[in-house]
Every structure is written in C-alpha cells, then in structure tokens.
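Minimal example, chain plus calcium ion.
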Amino acid sequence: MKRFFSLFSGLTVACATLAAPAVSATDDFAQCKTRLAAKAVSQGVAKEVVDNAFSTITYVNRVIELDRSQPEFVTTFPSYYSKRVTNWRVSKGRQLMQKHWPMLTRLQQKYGIPPHYLVAFWGLETNFGGYKGTMPVLSSLATLACDERRSTYFTGELMTALKLAEREYLNPANMVGSWAGAMGHTQFMPSAYYKYAVDGDGDGQANLWDSEADALTSAANFLNNLGWNQGTRWGREVVLPEGFDYRESGYGNRRSVIDWKALGITQADGSALPDSTLSAYVVVPAGHEGPAFLAYQNFRVIMRWNNSEFYAIAVGELANQIAGSDGLVASLPDLPAYTRNDIMALQQKLNDEGYDVGKPDGIMGPATRSGIREFQLKHNMIADGFPAMDVMKKAGVKLAAGNN
Ligand SMILES: [Ca+2]
C-alpha cells in the first residue's frame, strides 16, 4: 500500500506529522502486551477471550513502516478520480445493485440511504469485497497501541476490537483487514464496527467479512447515524460563471443553492439550478481547468466516513453513474504527477517573492493556496489558488524528471 499527499483534500493532514520510532524491542512489546491484556480484563472483557486473543498477537514491524512512510507524490484529483471511478466499477456496481435490489430497497426504507450510494461505498472501500485486507487486525492494533505516535487512539481501538470479538464470537485469526485495523467489506474500524454493525442476514452475528447483507445493512445504519439527509443528493457538477471569484469556494463559503444560482452558477449541462434553499459550497478540486461542484449536506456526511473531498466526489459520482448517469461533463485536466519536492520548491519561490506561505512543507494548505492566488493576480492569471503547470512555469519551478 502506498499513501499519497493529496491536493486540496483532508487526506493531507493525516500523514503530515511523523515522530521517531518508539518501541521495537520484543521485550518492550511483551511488557506492553501484558499491560494491554490487563487493561482489557479491567474493562470487562472475559479473561479467556483476552487470553485467546493475546495468544495470537505479535509485533508487526511492517505496520510501523507503513505508519512512518512519507508519500513521495502529491495526489491530484484527476489521477485519484480516474483510478477509482472506473467503467469496471460502474458496471459491476450496476450488476450488484440489481442482484441485491430487494434488500437494498428495504434498507432505503429503514435507513434512508438510496441503493446506489451503498453500492458506491462498497465499491470504493473494497472493490465490492474483492480486497478486504489480509493484515491481522489485533496484532496491527496492538503494535500501534504500543507505539508512542498514536498510542491512545489505537489502545482504544484495540480494546473495542476485543469487546467486539467477545460480543460477536469472532475468531481472532479471522479478524483481518488493513494495516491500520479497518475490517470487512466496508472497512470499518473497530469503533465503527462495535457501534454501527448490524446483523443483516439474521444469523445472530454481525459479520462484516463474510456476509454482504451484514455489510450493506451496517453501511446503511452507519450513514444514517452520520446524519444522511434523506431525499437530497450529495452535490452536483456545475459550471461556474466567467470571472468567478475563487475565494468564494470552500466549506467556509456556504450559501443556498438559490443564492449560487443568482451568482450565475448553472448545472453542468448549462441548465438552471433548482430554486432550492439547501446549503451548498463550491469545490474546485483540480483548478479552474477542471470540473467544479456544488457540495451539499450529504457531501459532508460522506466526509465523516472518510475525511477527504476527493473521496466524497468519487462516492457521489460513482453512485450517480451506477444509477445511470454518464459521468463528468467537464474533462479532467492533464496535471503532472507532482512530488512533495515540487510543491516545496513552489512554496520556496513564493516566499522568495514576498508571498508568505510559511515554511515549505510540500503540503497544499490554506496559506499556500492564498499565496498562489496573489501570485496569479499579480501575473494576470485566473486566481484559483491552484498550482497548475502555468503557475509552476511562471514561478520558474522545474518539476522532477519526466514531468516537463
Ligand atoms: Ca449476520
């Protein structure tokens, strides 16, 4: 698994701060395991469940390597989107929606989540169950719990995973998933599994690995609890008017759809937006040369599942296409594969020219966006705050080999 920084996405924050490795010696890990086992018993997990689980737990060095790995490339929206919203996923999603239609319509009645969204989440999380991860979850969580970087969070997830094993009669050896502990068809962390998993097929166990009914029912219950707004869409692709002020984009600039309509925004095909009072904000994930979106309340619900605007657009568009739409109207700009060093070089140039964007870190934060915007204004470029190639060229940034 390779992680990437992303342009204009919540994903960037998660991988930004790194610390030195703490525990690696097996002695330390053995002591830590003993402490964690005692903690689980003190939290009420039966001793035989704890003993059985801990007999399977080992230190997984690979988990720490993955936790420490620095992404080399900055993910751009075109590359993110085109890898995830694929023709294969759309057609597989349509087949599966048909196959599970009676259950999916029951879930919509009970939880309010339309079938195409549930299938889209399933497709994005695990390729409809095709890849659920093979790392031993309890060992991964214990390794991260015994490491100082995010010990508190992962200790909590490990305790919850043990309570889950007890409640659902899960065999620790079958609890596999991502290196960070996400499990099953929908890649739930233990805390989400514990709180929101539902036994959808009625066999008495909520099993997110082996039961598609359990997984889809649990996803519907989870989204309902995250605040899904029934009867409204996730957002939509739009066209911004000529001369749009890109400082009006982003979550901080929410207006009703009818207000955006008055400012000249239309649907992607040029037709008028509805006269809706729904709150919305403008998302421009690939600069002014790429598609633009209005994001509604359900966009933020999707981001509570995975805190990334790229992810939310991918879920929304995959859902639309599974339900029959043709896909994005705007074409995706051909952006180069920026490295973090490319972005750092741009940040350095901006600082050198007097736009204070802070210490160069290769991450596209608000200061960098606003610095790029000022730079663009000065050079009579469209001020979208996006580091497209014309900005890189104008700033004299030479991209890493092979890009330009
Ligand atoms: Ca079940």
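The two ends are 27 Å apart (CA to CA). Residues 26-42 form the longest helix (17 residues).
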